[in-house]
Amino acid sequence: MAYDMVIKGAKAVTPDGVKEADIAVQNGVITKIGSDIEASGATMIQADGQYVFPGAIDCHVHFNEPGREDWEGFETGSRMMAAGGCTTYFDMPLNCIPSTVTAEHLLAKAEVGRQKSAVDFALWGGLVPGHIDDIRPMAEAGAIGFKAFLSKSGTDEFRSVDERTLLKGMTEIAAAGKILALHAESDAITSYLQMVLANKGEVDADAYAASRPEEAEAEAVYRTIQYAKVTGCPVHFVHISTAKAVRLIREAKSERLDVSVETCPHYVLFSHDDLREKGSVAKCAPPLRSQQSKEALIEALSAGHIDMVSSDHSPCHPSLKREDNMFLSWGGISGGQFTLLAMLQLALERDIPFETIAEWTASAPAKRFGLQQKGRLEAGCDADFVLVTMEPYTVTRETMFAKHKQSIYEGHTFPCRISATYSKGRSVYREGEIVSGIDGA
């Protein structure tokens, strides 16, 4: 049988473990994984000594287009994802102008993505006050699910939900057969504590962390679980930062509720000490936690109590990152390029099998969101894969592909590097360079 491409001598990270194997591709699909595959007439990629992972699926990024392309956009953002081994991403409905809260806005944004994106993508719709009737049309237009905030989103265009909107929205989302992605922090707690601290003139890193305690996350998770019981709405809890919240979600799963949970690389690599040291590049919501809380979260992740890992890549223009008042600084970490590398670092430090990393970064999100041809190195799946070389890599501004070179990851050394990324068999990144002439997804 003739193939378009054959990867030879790879250490393939399959659902059954790491296997020495060749990988054959035809028409953008993995056709065969086995030994000594005949490569006559095919493009041959010699991958001796390199690991091949399924392309990462990042279900949580903010590319801000249209309207705020000066923060990030589909072109720079998608190429950054390719450089990090991500071949599919889900773009959030906020930070762009207009927000993605109608079918018209969703379709217009999708067209921009098709023209500019280097890899595959999906789009979240928004659950906000005044747009309950837009949920069904957005679902029919292809929204992967719907995002809502219990606390303030950070932009005026995307409002957080009140209790009635949340309940009605969850009912509609369930009826449409979709999933609610929830930013779970109690606005009552966070707004009150911020007011108290700011009135005392306390606006530094410690004050910011104190204004968003673990209890704010746990309260919001608990409340939403009760609403899920009432409405039957599937819920995906985004960027969970505490073992307390994970325990509540585990209890909900034990009651057979349709819930899932993600955490982010920055919560397992960094702590509040980094916010103190690095300043606003390390500000996010929920905030980085104490070293003790970080360790508890890693234990929960290692024990299999967290379903997946996503970046929550949330960049901004550098002028919005302020050091004089942490409350007024933009709250988001630029890190979409480093999710797979961060998880591989954790795997090597904590003796976690590489197939578990592939599950967190690829197969679990594919399964949760119904991407049946993605997320696994198996015959019949899309030829989305990443070649990883076990050589140290230090992040510099020159090697960042995000539009703005401001990141908590600057100066961080990973124990490995991404050497190549393929999207449906197309080379989109190779040895530090974005491959020219790539088509949109």
Please, could you describe this protein's structure?
The protein is of the alpha/beta class. The protein has 2 domains: about 5-50 and about 380-435, Roll (Urease, subunit C, domain 1), CATH 2.30.40.10; about 55-370, TIM Barrel (Alpha-Beta Barrel). The protein has helices at about 75-85, 105-115, 135-140, 165-175, 185-200, 205-210, 215-230, 245-255, 265-270, 270-280, 290-300, 340-350, 355-370, and strands at about 5-15, 15-25, 30-35, 45, 50-55, 55-60, 85-90, 120-125, 125, 145-150, 180-185, 235, 260-265, 310, 385-390, 395, 415, 415-425, 425-430, 435. Strands 1, 2, 3, 4, 5, 15, 18, 19 and 20 form a 9-stranded mixed beta sheet that branches. Strands 9-10-11-12-13-14 form a 6-stranded parallel beta sheet. It has a 3-stranded parallel beta sheet with strand order 6-7-8. Helix 5 (about 185-200) packs antiparallel against helix 6 and helix 7 (about 215-230) packs parallel to helix 8. The chain is globular and about 70 Å long.
What proportion strand? 15-25%
Structural class call reads: alpha/beta
- Overall shape: it is globular
**Count of beta strands:** 20
Helix content bin: 25-40%
How many domains make up the coordinates?
2
Provide a count of the helices. Answer: 13
* Rg: 21 Å
The pLDDT mean sits at: 96
- C-alpha termini separation: 27 Å
Q: Give the C-level CATH assignment of the largest domain.
A: Alpha Beta
The name CATH uses for the topology of the largest domain is: TIM Barrel
CATH architecture annotation of the largest domain: Alpha-Beta Barrel
What is the assigned CATH homologous superfamily of the largest domain?
A: Metal-dependent hydrolases
Largest sheet: 9 strands, mixed
Low-confidence stretches: 437-441
